[in-house]
Amino acid sequence: MKIGVISDTHLHQYSLELQGIIDAYFSAVDMIFHAGDIVESDVLTVFSAKKVEVVAGNMDSLAIREKFPTKKTIKIGKFTIGLIHGWGSPIGIEKRLRPEFGQIDCLVYGHTHYPVNKIIDGVLFFNPGSATEKRFTKKNTIGILEIGEQIKGEIIEL
User: Has this prediction a pTM greater than 0.90?
Assistant: First the structure.
């Protein structure tokens, strides 16, 4: 199974740029995770062709925060994945987020705009960075999780 992972789109309406990214990179994925900071509901129309798991982030509108939880646990095959946006400084974010979940195999998060693909204490920590916002980094990125005998992450520079 392949999962497209995106976060921190920070858009107020449907975007042709985001639609192009989804069409180009997520056409072959089975589902999509959005790790928050969508901002407005209209943005979600770009994902309408796929099953999407969404969590709300700190910059999301009231409509998004009322519709989606701030964190969720998703079971895929033998793996358990935690999906959350995150908060606070990028420094030490993994230590702050990990206690939000029980036993998981992978923690997908956003907030920092920095891509992360690393294993800490047996858990894959995966942050796709930001597909559309360059406030904190010079490169936009997204991610792909491949789930088979194990979970593997890939960061894609746009």
Answer: yes
